[in-house]
Amino acid sequence: MRSSHPREATVGMEYYVSDADGVGGRLRADDADFRVRELERFDTEPVDAPTDAYPHLVFRATLRGWDTNDFAARVSDALGISRERVNWAGTKDKYAVTTQLFSVYGADPEELPEIDGVEIEVLGRAGRNLEFGDLAGNAFELRVTDPERPDNAAAITDELRAFGGLADEHRSDGADGSSEDATSIGVPNFFGQQRFGSRRPVTHKVGLAIARDDWEGAVMAYLGNPTDAEPAGTQEARAFVAETRDWQEALERVPHRLRYERSMIHALAEHDGEPGPDQYREALERVPSNLQRLFVHAAQSYAFNLMLSERLERGLPFDRPVEGDVVCFSDTDAPDGLALPDTDRLQRVDERRVDSVTRHCERGRAFVTAPLVGTETELADGEQGEIERAVLDDLGLEPADFDLPGEFGSTGTRRAILLRTDLGLETEPLTLEFALPKGSYATVLSREFLKVDPIDLG
After folding, report:
1. Which residue(s) pair with 145 in the sheet?
2. With 0-12 CB in 10 A as exposed, 13-18 as middle and 19+ as buried, what is 398?
3. Cα–Cα distance between 117 and 110 in angstroms, integer?
4. Per 3-state DSSP, what percentage of the chain is helix, strand, and coil (rounded to 5)?
5. How confident is the model over 331-367, as pLDDT tens digits?
6. Is 19 a catalytic residue?
7. CA neighbor of 352 nearest in space, from 317, 383, 321
8. What is the pTM (predicted TM-score) of this model?
9. What are 241-260's pLDDT values in tens digits?
10. Of 67, 93, 158, 342, which residue is the catalytic one?
11. Cα angle for residues 22, 23, 25 (degrees, 5° grid)
12. Do 423 and 185 form a contact (C-beta atoms < 8 A)?
């Protein structure tokens, strides 16, 4: 184990669990270096099924240089229909080659447009639209550009296999005749840098202020906080807002591309006199509802990362429980080869159950968890409970603080602390292939191999 990059430590990821030097390099030098394919669980009927019973056309699209939302808008425009009639199970980044499912209400295959950078495969029809729950996970193929120490990948793999409690497991694929093997490994199930803002990690700061009922602090955390990863003009504009709170002048200085910031500033500029808590909250509510939820989710994610870092520091295992832990069991409907935790099925581990639950964890049937704290969160007992309470105390939070108005409220849940996957490692060029359950981040695995500034992880 070794200390992480300083930028990662600011979002609670304080350690790498592998001690070997990273291979270096970077991801996403080209879109094709980062490939993602959805692992879905969604059944379709034949494309000629009756449209009265199965009105949703389902197709798989491979996108290059397309953000999911932008592609959906392009499809709806081409079909002359509302954007609300196009649905998908998971949102993907434009700086990648992504393969994912879409459903369109009331469309026929021949009506689908030809779009540059897009390949479409019609799968059939369905009686309902796609939803987030239809996504089980994602399969990744990540190519590392300009690695400095590519040979270190093997040593890192060995360390991650041991961390996951898998030191004796090694599975050869052999399906494609490749000499490369797939090796079972484990990493902490941190929330990746993207959760907080890759270049400007502030969403958790906004969420923490909201949970503390500090609406002014929440707005200023989003509008201010310039970072050296931003253009100089943006840094200057943020510094001006933080120092002066001259909202009218801020509208002249803040770039138009920062539309969420400008929405908040407009709300404050429309108010006569010095804004109070209600006006600052109204300013936050000018941004889309999904971003409002993201602020609080990021605060929960930050606390979760800190809890995992503290568990690492104390030397507690991730692959098996200790007395007082809370575990969840696996989702029996997950696709083959994907370990998918079901956090609706929880069990508290007392002294009598440690051995039996350990066996379930060894077989991939159960997972140790930590909380994403909300109003209904019940904290663990034992040493893990001490960690959870200490982190919340340090942050000045308690579960009741998440009883918040509108989109900001959260009941909370729990999340597995260990990611296990089969890693395919190719050396020329250096490529990582693996699958992860939904909600987990490819960068929390790739960071262990590269050990670079998270900005270079894409």
Report:
1. 26
2. middle
3. 19
4. 40, 20, 40
5. 877 777 778 898 999 999 999 999 999 999 998 899 9
6. no
7. 321
8. 0.89
9. 999 999 999 999 999 999 99
10. 93
11. 115
12. yes
